[in-house]
Amino acid sequence: MNGTIKVAVAGASGRMGREVVKMVLDDPELRLAAAVDNSSNPIDAGMMAGMGPCGVMMSNSLEQALLETKPDVLVDFTTPKSVVGNTKLAIQYGVRPVIGTTGFTPADIVELDKLCQEAGIGGLIAPNFSIGAILMMKFAAQAAKYMPHVEIIEFHGDQKLDAPSGTSVKTAELIAANRRELRQGNPEEEETIEGSRGGYYNGFRIHSVRLPGVFAQQEVIFGGHGQTLKIRHDSYERAGYMPGVNLAVKKVMTYQGMVYGFEHFID
Ligand code: NAP
């Protein structure tokens, strides 16, 4: 698409949302149409994000913002509780959703794809916008063909709401698609402390570590005869996701239906 893409941001004063506001204001091909947050005061969105004033006031009604500013794309970094409703609202107004918030169920994704198809627009749900994380997932899926015994350990800050992380679920799905279901470990194993073996997915385990001081890391560990293989990705700051969000905002204009996973936007 030629010209400027109008972008609305939901969760604009959150930690990710602020980075999105900055990224949009910094790119001449994008225009900030609206910045929405639950508990925002009517201040300038540029000032809120630590930049100069941009002329867009923060608002607290997504529906009103979509109706009044008619954006092309909605970028959502809110909460698992509100994201499904926000996404449906965007589709209802013909606005393409680019969703970074995690916590969708497979049924949500099927329903949202149907809604996008009916509205004739594209959308993206991306549990991880980081290129390094996408490569970790792709390499893990590849390794699972040859080393089917695997466990995932993901590390996030202690205030994260959902577990396991959307990235680990996506990694697990890609691994499961590349190996037969294989119930790992000793069939007679017993947990003496409930949950100590982690969450069960398609025969393997996902462990969620939640600690202050941690940002976002994931390790996928494969075990074979006399060897292990570890594929690890570390994210250090939120700005690292923005090149991915920028690419997604531009590419979503050319898609139809709801795409799940940023890897589909990367050739
Ligand atoms: P955060 O700092 O808590 O920000 C969330 C913001 O959304 C808050 O300011 C919250 O406002 C606002 N909000 C909640 N419901 C809303 C609604 N209905 N409409 C508008 N705004 C709403 O969280 P964060 O660290 O930015 O993370 C946000 C999400 O992104 C999480 O699900 C996280 O897992 C995910 N994430 C994804 C990626 C990725 O690459 N895909 C990377 C990092 C994080 P109040 O606090 O006032 O309610």
Structure summarized in a few sentences:
The protein has 267 residues and is of the alpha/beta class. The chain has helices at residues 15-26, 45-48, 62-69, 80-92, 106-119, 131-144, 166-176, 242-251, and strands at 5-10, 30-36, 58-59, 73-76, 96-99, 122-125, 149-156, 199-201, 204-210, 216-224, 227-235, 257-260.
Lay out the secondary structure:
Layout: E1 5-10, H1 15-26, E2 30-36, H2 45-48, E3 58-59, H3 62-69, E4 73-76, H4 80-92, E5 96-99, H5 106-119, E6 122-125, H6 131-144, E7 149-156, H7 166-176, E8 199-201, E9 204-210, E10 216-224, E11 227-235, H8 242-251, E12 257-260
Parallel strand pairs: 1-2, 1-4, 2-3, 4-5, 5-6, 6-12, 7-9
Antiparallel strand pairs: 7-10, 8-9, 10-11
Helix pairs in contact: 1-8, 4-5, 6-7
The protein binds NADP nicotinamide-adenine-dinucleotide phosphate.
Describe the structure.
It is a single chain. Helix content is 32%, strand content 25%. The protein has helices at 15-26, 45-48, 62-69, 80-92, 106-119, 131-144, 166-176, 242-251, and strands at residues 5-10, 30-36, 58-59, 73-76, 96-99, 122-125, 149-156, 199-201, 204-210, 216-224, 227-235, 257-260.
- The CATH first-level class of the largest domain comes to Alpha Beta
Class inferred from helices and paired strands: alpha/beta
Distance between the termini: 19 Å
User: What would CATH call the architecture of the largest domain?
Assistant: 3-Layer(aba) Sandwich
Kindly state the number of beta strands.
Answer: 12
Average per-residue pLDDT, rounded, comes to: 95
CATH topology of the largest domain: Rossmann fold
Helix content: 25-40%
Strand numbers in spatial order across the main sheet: 3-2-1-4-5-6-12
What is the radius of gyration? 20 Å
Tell me the fraction of residues in β-strands, as a range: 25-35%
The low-pLDDT segments are none
